[in-house]
Amino acid sequence: MAESSFTTADFHNVVQKHIMNALYEQLGAEKMDWQLILPFLEAARLFCTSEFREAGSVRLHTLRAEGDEWVDAEEAFLGISVTDRDDGEPWLSETYWISDVALADRDPEKVRRIIASLERSIAKLNAWLAEPEKGGPGEPE
């Protein structure tokens, strides 16, 4: 009977089993050194960064669900979401009231600066709405 050849897939499986066994032994023996953890952390950061870049969205929202209806929200809120690139299922979906974001540090001076920045943003948005030649709809009739 001929002996089957040892393929690269077989090699991969054997190596993976040895690495996993060594990892289990190391984890059981003591806390892993930071230098062993760092490559996993860096890979996770790269993965998450690409997930956010390719399948993430950050939006300002003004409506909220109330039963089957959409109603005006109490204030604008920030929505952050990321879907899995393979199956399209969301794995992150967070919302934050704009006021909660502004008040997070509980620093009155910072809140004043945020209000001033928001007022400048509102002025820009109103200017865009008033100028149809720049893509805005123009003044309402």
Mean pLDDT: 88
Portion of residues within helices: 40-55%
Strand order, largest beta sheet = 1-2-3
Low-confidence residue ranges: none
Q: Gyration radius, to the nearest Å?
A: 26 Å
Counted beta strands: 3
Query: What class do helices, strands and sheet pairing give?
Result: alpha+beta
End-to-end distance, in Å?
89 Å
Order of helices and strands: HHEEEHH
Strand content: 15-25%
Largest sheet: number of strands, sense, barrel closure: 3 strands, antiparallel
Structure description:
The chain is of the alpha+beta class and about 140 residues long. Among the domains are: about 55-100, no CATH class; about 105-140, no CATH class. Helices cover about 50% and strands about 25% of the residues. It is built from four helices and three strands. The chain has helices at about 10-30, 35-55, 100, 110-130, and strands spanning about 55-65, 70-85, 90-95. It has a three-stranded antiparallel β-sheet with strand order 1-2-3. It is elongated and about 80 Å long. The protein starts with 7 loop residues before the first helix and ends in an 11-residue tail after the last helix. The mean pLDDT is about 90.
